């Protein structure tokens, strides 16, 4: 096992990840995990465990009534492990055993912040987090999880007390909401779901902030903390390029998504049509934020227009930041592709952003990620379309939601046959493991080639 971890960290990570899913499946199948004291069917326990570890939020049972206190604790533990990231957890376990971070553990943790370091060898650009800072990153991960979720819990707690919940129930539900928001899971512990908060500015703002912080990624949080502490925000221009691209692209996508959702659903009486103008803007912004991978819905997705579903498909496919609790191809992947297209249109030889040059290797990885992601989504969609005969827009929406570990649903997933549930579960697994890690694990190794073949250019476009 140690030899596997050192030689093939990607494969080792997938093994750890898969083992955790099986362990949590077994725990959720225990009679003590269900409210009625009966054994949960394998497919439902497996799907819930997968959704929790993958921090997706898609469900096939009633989360508020099916699970017991023990079952809910198992689920919260699962979303915490999934949210922190299996790569980071593996590094922390290595640190706990050896009492120090060796080079292999540092490389393993570094691959969670920059997959190219582990899979493609040394890279020329300035890294988001250097190898010498991985110990600080791991501390930042744990500190950020504890600090942010504690803050969110304290902000949500008084609101639930005002709704009439007793102190212990309000405290538990507050922590559940906080963990669900920050890990971008989207599970809701209350029987009424998000219905009581559909037009609640305070609650939606708190949950939206939690999802945003979880979706930008631990390297960005670490960079913000480091610059605030060391430089006191005096030179924000020195932020790492990754942090700049993540924050800028995320903000642009949230704003454009909110404008598109608001415009397309403005007169839809089943969604925004019956709300006031202020509530429409709030709901549009919240739903756009949830497409980062949050999955907490205040509008009935099933009643949305097909045009809106397509916009949300694109937003969920992109997802959030690298090394974050969000899924998707990641916002930096999209940013690199746009920057490459812009450089080509302007005739630049190099991809440039914020007075920095982005190596061609990064573009190659970005293209690979998009192609792998599109293949996974297309394959799952074709299988489910043939299996269920459901409308394309509903199938595509739920498949992309599963791949992007988002958790929003048109209602298709909970009504799937058992075989369909396994298809969605496999899609969640592929989305959370990450296309780059998955590809690296399949490839097993990179081959060096000591010669170059004659060049010939095919016609493109």
- Radius of gyration, in Å, reads 22 Å
The averaged pLDDT comes out at: 83
- Unreliable sequence segments: 122-128
* Total number of beta strands: 2
Terminal residue distance: 47 Å
Structural class: mainly alpha
Strand-and-helix sequence, N→C? HHHHHHHHHHHHHHHHEEHHHH
Strand order of the largest sheet: 1-2
Q: Give the overall shape, derived from the CA principal axes.
A: globular
The number of distinct helices, counting runs of at least 4 residues, comes to 20
For the sheet with most strands, the description reads: 2 strands, antiparallel
Care to describe what's here?
This is Trk-type K+ transport system membrane component. It holds the Pfam family TrkH. It is found in: Cell membrane. It comes from Lysinibacter cavernae. The longest helix is centred in the first third of the chain and has 29 residues, at 134-162. Mean pLDDT is 83; it is low at 122-128. The protein is built from 20 helices and two strands. α13 packs across α14. 64% of the residues lie in helices and 1% in strands. It has a domain at 2-318. It is globular, with a radius of gyration of 22 Å. With 461 residues, the protein is an all-alpha fold.
Observed structural traits:
461 residues; mainly alpha; two-stranded antiparallel ribbon; 64% helix
In short:
The chain has 461 residues and is mainly alpha-helical.
What is the element layout, followed by pairings?
Layout: H1 2-7, H2 9-29, H3 42-53, H4 63-66, H5 69-84, H6 86-98, H7 103-113, H8 115-120, H9 134-162, H10 167-182, H11 201-216, H12 218-230, H13 241-265, H14 277-290, H15 306-318, H16 331-346, E1 351-353, E2 356-358, H17 360-388, H18 392-403, H19 418-433, H20 435-443
Antiparallel strand pairs: 1-2
